[in-house]
Amino acid sequence: MAKQNVSEQFVDILVRAGVKRLYGVVGDSLNPVVDAVRRNSAIEWIQVRHEETAAFAAGAEAQITGTLAACAGSCGPGNLHLINGLYDAHRSMAPVLALASHIPSSEIGLGYFQETHPELLFQECSHYNEMISNPQQMPRLLQTAIQHAIGRGGVSVVSMPGDIASRPAPEKSVEHALVTSRPSVKPGDEEIETLRKMIDDAERVTLFCGSGTAGAHAEVMEFAERVKAPVGHALRGKEWIQYDNPYDVGMSGLLGYGAAYEATNECDLLILLGTDFPYNAFLPTDVKIVQVDVRPEHLGRRSKLDLAVWGDVRETLRALTPQVKAKSDRRFLDRMLKKHADALEGVVKAYTRKVEKHVPIHPEYVASVLDELADDDAVFTVDTGMCNVWAARYLTPNGRRRVIGSFSHGSMANALPQAIGAQFTDRSRQVVSMSGDGGFTMLMGDFLTLVQYNLPVKVVLFNNSSLGMVELEMLVAGLPSFGTTNKNPDFAAIARAAGAYGVRVEKPKQLESALKDAFRHKGPALVDVVTDPNALSIPPKISADMVTGFALSASKIVLDGGVGRMLQMARSNIRNVPRP
């Protein structure tokens, strides 16, 4: 039996850790690893056109599967292209292992061609970042990197010179046991007792939920019923908590809607569940606040806390709920539910009035029709910018759908690459990329990756020929829009030229049939929808403190918003509320 080299051993360990694909672009120092993948039937090399796409795709795969995903870049410029997607994966807590291939080990520190220092460059977007300088290091170092990525939730980076990758692997290498899942974390009895007393003493409790409520929907609903609490959510919490939720009062923050702001600011006790909600201007300063989070570094970094609880949401609520006194007074909950329904009634007209005549097409209408036609278990990937608004307000969660975006890092061009990673996990599952024309064109080359692998991703392009969110920021700042207009081609024609299905939609009456045809198509498809560049949106509550930095996107320009099927949900939730 031929002796293994370091690259072959590296790939074998990835396979044992559950990695099924390695996304990247081949080249020089990375070639030994790519060749090892070629010869290993348990793992697939996914050739993308840009390494940033590789990192975004790996991050999306990790978010869909909950298991380790991997990407790779060759030395210098190759692995530098990974960095933006790795930042996104790291901030999304997606377990990703990145291989940053390196220049020959004998040349490090001598200004060699394409020399960079990966162990410095990736420090801020990883839990673990080390270089293999000797074959004897590799098995243990890679194992450590994998355990950091999985155990802490985020990115690990391993850099490896090409010559080290080609050397013989160490003799009698020990096959270490690998961590492949994370444990549950239950708070201590003292914290549970303190929280119980605070809840029993409060008259009005509100829950505000983030992505940390994943897998805890039943527990949150049971707890909300017991304490008669309205339930709001952040954008990343929407898919996990809004469906089948009779206590729903909408979303707070820059893309917010409904009564979530009022519910969080008019309660006695606000409980933050699994959220690292970044916009502290939307959080109250004069109510008691408790935060429950599995990551202790998140506790208290957004607001002053009266109690910090280190634990995951499901285990915390399982321990807490039986001990809390059941509340019978629904007046605060019912008032918030009514406010929520009233708020949604006021904006629903945006996509119901004369939509068949409105040209360019309302993007709200596009999102509404897309929500109606998409599969019940569809995966939506969403570009940063105005697509975030339409996804937040129109996509209806049901416990089976997924919505993935660059919600913490806020990168452009994320939707198409993330759709690639999502689709590779299951070719039979519908994956829809809600792309803006700005984001799509930034990494448009990887539309060819869809064609090359015949991935049936459906790209719905919201084409308003502008960087809409940036225009909005400029307007709020009193600046004329400048540098925000895109001169766009016929993207459908480009898709067809690339070998995919492409259709352009310029009139509302064409939209439904165009989407249905694209969804029926077996391979990749692009629907180029020409949308109104003047369709902008604001959150329900604005103060001077909120209009700073990215909060400029929460402009004071009031245009009709729209909320899609969420109005139906709100109406349903207040049917049994006693009328005054």
List the helices and strands and how they pair.
Layout: H1 6-16, E1 21-24, H2 31-38, E2 44-47, H3 51-65, E3 69-73, H4 77-80, H5 83-91, E4 96-102, H6 118-121, E5 128-131, H7 138-152, E6 155-161, H8 162-166, H9 189-201, E7 205-209, H10 217-227, E8 231-233, H11 238-241, E9 248-251, E10 257-258, H12 260-265, E11 269-273, E12 288-293, E13 307-310, H13 313-320, H14 331-345, H15 363-373, E14 379-382, H16 386-394, E15 402-405, H17 415-425, E16 431-436, H18 437-442, H19 447-452, E17 458-463, H20 468-476, H21 491-498, E18 501-505, H22 508-520, E19 525-530, H23 566-573
Parallel strand pairs: 1-2, 1-3, 3-4, 4-6, 5-6, 7-8, 7-11, 8-9, 11-12, 12-13, 14-15, 14-16, 16-17, 17-19, 18-19
Antiparallel strand pairs: 9-10
Helix pairs in contact: 1-2, 1-7, 3-5, 3-17, 10-13, 14-23, 15-22
Rg on CA atoms, Å: 25 Å
Quantity of strands, as a count: 19
Helix segment tally:
23
Shape: globular
Q: Spans of 5+ residues with little confidence (pLDDT < 50)?
A: 542-560
Strand order of the largest sheet: 10-9-8-7-11-12-13
Distance between the termini: 83 Å
Beta fraction: 15-25%
What is the share of helical residues?
A: 25-40%
* Overall pLDDT metric: 89
Structural class: alpha/beta
Largest sheet: 7 strands, mixed
Report what the structure shows:
With 580 residues, the chain is of the alpha/beta class. The chain contains 23 helices and 19 strands. The strands form three sheets. The chain has a seven-stranded mixed β-sheet with strand order 10-9-8-7-11-12-13. Strand 1 (21-24), helix 2 (31-38) and strand 2 form a beta-alpha-beta unit. The chain starts with 5 loop residues before the first helix and ends in a 7-residue tail after the last helix.
